[in-house]
Amino acid sequence: YFKAFTKQFTTGENYQAGADRELQTVRQMMIDFLQNHSQEVRPPACPPLDPVWSSDITSLFDKNSHHYTAIVFESNSSYVGREVILDLIQYENIVVRRALNSDRAFLEKLGVPSVPSCYLIQPNGSHGLINNLKPLRSFFSSYLKSLPGVRKKLLLPLQLPAQENKEEGTEIKVWKEFDKTKLYMADLESGLHFLLRVELATHKTLEGAELKTFKDFVTISAKV
Fold it and tell me: Which GO terms of the molecular function aspect are on file (predicted)?
């Protein structure tokens, strides 16, 4: 694990992923890294993961906003809220927060019968519990992504940093925006490189059916 903004040389910190070695365990451990990290110097792309108080939620009611606000009510040991927050960081027109179920009276006032539950505040200030949703991360995230106006953020082309003492008249190069639906020469070159220099290198010798397959592949490659 490498912390953001580390200035001194480090080989990283090693962590055991738990005895079960399950994906969920690793994911939860990484969420803990992010949350603990944010208390020091939070990486700019990392949203706040700490729970909000009931008073903070009340202040959002009956106020017009340009975005939706979703609040995942959950228990202290639940990771659903933080998972949904991270699922939605690439989407605009929605902000996701989490709140704990410690204030029982407040939950009763909002009509939240059980946790985890997802509560939605509309841009016009109206609010209410999202009903008929299974209390799972996948259902919460899918529903929020489907709201009108909620869409994936457009990634702006990256600009290369300006070189020092650059000659006059030289322009800053802007990276091309690649179309993911197309196949580029760089993809083909990368594939050939991996096949010939990595995959093929795992075989000390080629003979029989394997050798014939490789010869056929070279013949087809030469033709196309």
Answer: flavin-dependent sulfhydryl oxidase activity; protein disulfide isomerase activity
